[in-house]
Design brief:
The protein is an alpha/beta fold. It has two domains: about 1-175 and about 300-310, 3-Layer(aba) Sandwich (Rossmann fold), CATH 3.40.50; about 190-285, Glycogen Phosphorylase B (Rossmann fold, 3-Layer(aba) Sandwich), CATH 3.40.50.2000. Helix content is about 25%, strand content about 20%. The chain is built from nine helices and twelve strands. The strands form two sheets. A seven-stranded mixed beta sheet has the order 3-2-1-4-5-6-7. It has a five-stranded parallel beta sheet with strand order 10-9-8-11-12. Helix 1 packs across helix 9 (about 300-310). The longest helix has 15 residues, at about 15-30. It is globular.
């Protein structure tokens, strides 16, 4: 099939977690014989087909305020150009603030906009306090899609609640995990507690500090503020290739986010490495109804995604 792929970020240029997922899906699509035209903003790319079989929309409003970006008229033209699917990696297509500060309990007038988010208003050149999810264009993207894809049951539930969608109609991508890298080596576990991820408020910094202010914990990841946390042993950024070694040396993996973490791939990776999981109810990976430590549950995730799409079109 000829498929138009449209997203703010080019997943073959940018290497964020969401772009890694999307680039893998597209590569698998190519392996299955599909051809792709592209329209991205960063970097700019426009090789769209005029005779596409369908369009693959993903994370259209990523990096709010950054230019260039899609205009409202462009997005309407994408929607009206033919059948499409829509894919969410996080909440960027329903919220124009970082890390969904309302946790999905949105109001028409967003209480998190205004003085407390003045930098966001300046960047986007707007003083509007309206909840982004209430824009007609947002509602149309989801309501007109042949199918909306999410990265966990929790992720689907939150967005469905915000937009009043039929939750049962949303599809869920099985986590894309390299089980050849993440597996239980039965190593000696010399680290009591481990966290891997961005060190910041949304990822549960204050939640962890309350528990581990007087206990040992190793923290791996970039600090949003650039400051060293006031607790634990912070190792900063470590190359991704080393993460399985740390997980295999750890007894417990800690993940206590403030926001409804869309998936939290590191949780699945830690489970595969044999860590005991200490989580809260805000972890998307934990909402899957299968054993995260069993590698068989991640088999053929990319091909299953494409089989579902091919059955639709």
């Amino acid at each position: 099939m000829k498929i138009n792929y449209i997203a703010h970020l080019d997943p073959f240029f940018h290497k964020g977690g969401g772009e890694v997922v999307l680039s893998q899906l597209l590569e698998t699509g190519k392996e299955r014989g599909h051809e792709f035209g592209f329209r991205t903003c960063s970097p700019y790319n426009n090789t769209l087909y005029n005779d596409q079989d369908f369009t693959f929309l993903a994370d259209l409003f990523n990096c709010p305020g950054n230019q260039p970006s899609f205009s409202k008229s462009e997005i309407f033209s994408f929607i009206e150009s033919g059948p499409y699917i829509h894919f969410d990696n996080a909440y960027v297509d329903i919220c124009d603030l970082d890390y969904l500060p309302c946790n999905g309990n949105n109001q028409y007038i967003c209480p998190h906009k205004g003085i407390r988010s003045w930098k966001s208003h300046v960047k986007k050149k707007t003083l509007s306090k309206k909840c982004f999810a209430n824009n007609d264009i947002v509602k149309k993207i989801y309501s007109k899609s042949k199918v909306n894809y999410f990265v966990s049951p929790l992720h689907r539930s939150v967005i469905s609640r915000v937009l009043n969608l039929d939750e049962a109609e949303g599809r869920i991508l099985i986590p894309l995990i390299d089980t050849k890298k993440f597996w239980n080596k039965n190593s000696e576990r010399i680290i009591d507690n481990l966290f891997v991820g961005v060190i910041g408020e949304a990822k549960g910094l204050s939640n962890m500090e309350k528990i581990f202010h007087d206990q040992s914990i190793v923290l791996i990841g970039k600090s949003i503020t650039g400051k060293k946390p006031d607790f634990g042993e912070w190792l900063g950024h470590i190359d991704y290739s080393m993460i399985p070694e740390y997980m295999n040396k750890s007894k417990n993996f800690i993940f206590l986010p403030r926001w409804p973490e869309p998936q939290g791939r590191v949780v699945a990776e830690a489970a595969l490495c044999g860590c005991n999981l200490i989580l809260n109810e805000n972890v998307g990976a934990y909402s899957f109804k299968f054993d995260l430590s069993e590698s068989e549950n991640y088999l053929n995730a990319k091909n299953i995604f494409w089989q579902e799409i091919e059955n639709i079109f």
